[in-house]
Amino acid sequence: LAKTTQPISMDSYEGQEVNITCSHNNIATNDYITWYQQFPSQGPRFIIQGYKTKVTNEVASLFIPADRKSSTLSLPRVSLSDTAVYYCLVAPGERGNRLAFGKGNQVVVIP
Amino acid sequence: DAGVIQSPRHEVTEMGQEVTLRCKPISGHNSLFWYRQTMMRGLELLIYFNNNVPIDDSGMPEDRFSAKMPNASFSTLKIQPSEPRDSAVYFCASSLGAGGTDTQYFGPGTRLTVL
């Protein structure tokens, strides 16, 4: 499994755009990048997944540079309810590959 | 869809007792995962099943832990005997497939406290 590195925590004010960066220097050619979100007292839930360039859905955008050694999750105009732990994961798509969640990045949105 | 169902939601027990956690995956999903979450270690994968067969149990901490999946709609994680260091939140998740890109859907978790 490719190792990922994220900040432990970050704060942001309500209404701002939040960008969370993840480093995955040893990402393999067939690895995908996936982000999950975990609210307090709940299990993680899928946010977004990508392989290269940019992916956008109704929740977030994922930016992946050409070398794919890092990725940035962008949350537009965060609200207090976006306070959560965000996990960056890297794994190939083939069957039998584990996801390593680790401790994630605690994002706190301040009023 | 009811999502992944776990029971009980909370469990308090004394050291040495047997604990059984239960999980019902989303209907039609072929893979089931058991995770443990603590402040110190984060979210760790204990074991996962594909088509009811255990595929990878390398995360199971020791012989006190065992997991079964007798059919596609039910799985158990058992700890016998339990110890205070087993206190954690245990999550069950399921997915359509077992690949790294298959979205995992998590249950609400079971908060276990071993006194």
List its salient traits.
heterodimer; A: 111 residues; mainly beta; five-stranded mixed sheet; four-stranded antiparallel sheet; B: 115 residues; seven-stranded mixed sheet; 11 strands; 0% helix; globular
Short recap of the structure:
The complex is a heterodimer of chains A (111) and B (115). Chain A is an all-beta fold.
Report on the architecture of this protein.
The complex is a heterodimer of chains A (111) and B (115). Chain A is mainly beta and 111 residues long. Chain A contains no helices and nine strands. In chain A, the strands form two sheets. A five-stranded mixed beta sheet of chain A has the order 1-9-8-3-4, with no helix packed on it. In chain A, strands 2-7-6-5 form a four-stranded antiparallel beta sheet, with no helix packed on it. Chain A is globular. In chain B, 0% of the residues lie in helices and 54% in strands. Chain B has strands at 5-7, 10-13, 19-24, 31-38, 42-50, 53-56, 65-71, 74-79, 88-95, 105-106, 110-114. In chain B, a hairpin with a 3-residue loop joins strand 4 (31-38) and strand 5. The chains are: A mainly beta (111), B mainly beta (115). Chains A and B meet through strand 3, strand 4 and strand 8 of A and strand 5 and strand 10 of B.
